[in-house]
Amino acid sequence: MDKPKIYLETTMFSFYYGSETTPEYRQHKADTRAVFELVKSGEYEAFTSHLATDELADDPNREKRIGMLGLVPEYGVKVLPFVGEAQRLTQLYIREGAVSPAWKTDAAHIAITAVNGLDFIVSLNFAHIVRPWTVERVRKVNFREGYKPIGIYRRSEVLEL
Question: Which of 1, 12, 16, 87 is the most exposed place for a label (fewest CB within 10 A)?
Answer without folding.
Answer: 1
